[in-house]
Design a protein that fits this description.
about 250 residues, alpha/beta, Carbamate kinase, eleven-stranded mixed beta sheet, 8 helices, about 20% strand
Amino acid sequence: MSDTPAFKRVLLKLSGEMLAGGTEHALSPSAIGRFAEEVKEITELGVEVAMVIGGGNIFRGLAGASRGMDRAHADYMGMLATVINALAFQDALERCGVQSRVMSAIPMDKIAEPYIRRRAMRHLEKGRVVIFGAGTGNPFFSTDTAAALRAAEVGAEVILKATKVDGVYDKDPMVHSDAVRYETLSYLEALQQQLKVMDSTAMAMCMDNDIPLVVFDLNTVGNVMRVIRGENVGTRVTMGPANMEV
């Protein structure tokens, strides 16, 4: 496979739980370090990388609301958790020699730059990894929606959704042994079948802006590079028709 990347500018979406590395701690330095090394490898190919990281390893707004907290208040707490994760990932990137910037949708100028679209694009053009923190800055919107929004704003060619499963299935593969993985899938079919690839707001935004999505297993070492090289990894969600892998 050629080292020529299939994409020039990407948005990498990580769940906060991935940063825990399967441990009982909120953050696993070894897991974060390994993921940072994979990001470094693709930047060395000249790929411009933006990132959105969830906050579920620290605090999830929906979970707080389900326990009686005010939903907006809980969501703001979740946004702050994403900034903690963004700073942790920034530290890991810079320890392996990758320049990066954290940009927050909620102003906190002592630790992060404010999100300004043109400035973010300039950072990307200069080869810096840009990590978008604090979601959209508004309650009631998930980090999936933040990823779709930022991808559209900065002109990312694809959203890479890094998860702990190797793609999108017709049902939960952890529960059903006969679950079938989709190789390709349309956004409309994912919405109609309620496959929960992303939340419906994020999916609609991707559809409206024709941004493809690749869902893949981040725990398999080298998968980020395989996706960037255009290899058939995970599930690709686009505007086109579906085709299930059997």
